[in-house]
Specification:
α1 crosses α4 and α2 packs across α3. The protein contains 7 helices and 2 strands. It is mostly helical and 146 residues long. It has a two-stranded antiparallel sheet. The chain has a domain of 99 residues: Arc Repressor Mutant, subunit A (Orthogonal Bundle), CATH 1.10.10.
Length: 146
């Protein structure tokens, strides 16, 4: 399974905000730290804000911060929020016709189980689990050096 680039960016943005204890972080700062397009990150920030994972403070001194504690942001929920769908094969897509073997195929059920297991593992972790007590990560994200 492959997650889309927006999910990757969303998780990185949340991790960055989780280690930033001093206040607000601008989209520009996150963009520069990761070498990611500011426009892409704006879209991600919008999605995360709509879901309540982050808050955007407007104005000259504005920026982003977590919308709740990092311990309350479940990685699986973030992935489900940002991913458009989990149709990893054609038969998962509602608008596609059935393939020749659909009436006898067990693959769809196996892949559904695998997707559920994948998400279940992500559900076991919070953003805090990814960043807690990790001084090297903090150095890379906030201070810019190891």
């Amino acid at each position: 399974m492959r997650l889309n680039v927006q999910t990757d960016y969303a998780l990185r943005m949340l991790m960055h905000l989780a280690v930033e204890k001093q206040g607000l972080v601008s989209v520009r700062e996150v963009s520069e730290r990761f070498g990611i397009s500011k426009n892409h990150l704006m879209k991600v920030a919008y999605l995360l804000g709509r879901a309540g994972f982050i808050e955007a403070v407007r104005g000259r001194a504005g920026g982003l911060r977590l919308g709740c504690a990092a311990t309350d942001i479940n990685v699986g929920e973030v992935v489900r929020c940002v991913e458009a769908d989990f149709a990893i094969v054609e038969c998962f897509q509602n608008d596609k016709g059935e393939c020749l073997i659909t009436p006898a195929c067990r693959l769809k059920g196996v892949l559904q189980d695998a997707t559920a297991a994948f998400l279940a593992v992500l559900d076991d972790y919070s953003i805090d689990d990814l960043v807690r007590r990790h001084p090297t990560l903090r150095s890379l994200l906030i201070e810019g050096a190891v």
